[in-house]
Amino acid sequence: MKHATSALLLPQPNLSYQITWDGKASFTVKAAMKCSCNNGQKVIWNKLVWGKGGILARKCSVKDISVEQIKTGAVVGGKPEFQVTIFNACPCLQSKVKLACKGFQSAEKIDPAKVLVVAGDECSLPHGSFIAPFSGYGFYYAWDSQFSLKPISSQPQCTKRKDPRNQFRMA
Questions:
Q1: Which of 62, 104, 114, 135 counts the highest number of beta carbons within 10 A?
Q2: Which terms are listed as keywords in the entry (predicted)?
Q3: Starting at the edge strand that comes first in sequence, how are the strands of the sheet with 135-142 ordered?
Q4: Which residues form the domain of 119?
Q5: What backbone phi and psi angles, to 5 degrees, belong to 40?
Q6: Is the predicted pLDDT of residue 109 greater than 50, yes or no?
Q7: Does residue 128 register a pLDDT over 90?
Q8: Can you give the pLDDT at residue 52?
């Protein structure tokens, strides 16, 4: 049986992110710019990233969650296997992620305590699971065809940052 995974992805080639996890559900994220810019360009960059409406200042929602599915080429129980990645494009942790998954089933065993909870036409991450900022949560299933998996709700976990130029705290 395959387990769910979570991985850090860097969405911008000129930004790097350092995420520190406290072992519970709190993250510290530091963003750094990779460029040789003059002071005027740095001011503009800080406003675009940290200013009102900037990438790291905006509010997050379920609209920041996307789902991608690919056929792995493997066959499980006579059915093709699919790899699902649920991606969080928000600078905040997202918990209580729910997907519309009408009729979802799998020939491949899916552990509801570790991978995915299926309840009628809704699927959710296991209790206590979350998707870190700019990261993905993945799992596998096998069936005759790909199921439609669409984000319907999530709970962003953002708090105010102390120094808007170099770090913010999520809990």
A1: 135
A2: Signal
A3: 5-8, 135-142, 79-88, 65-76
A4: 63-156
A5: -60, -40
A6: yes
A7: no
A8: 53
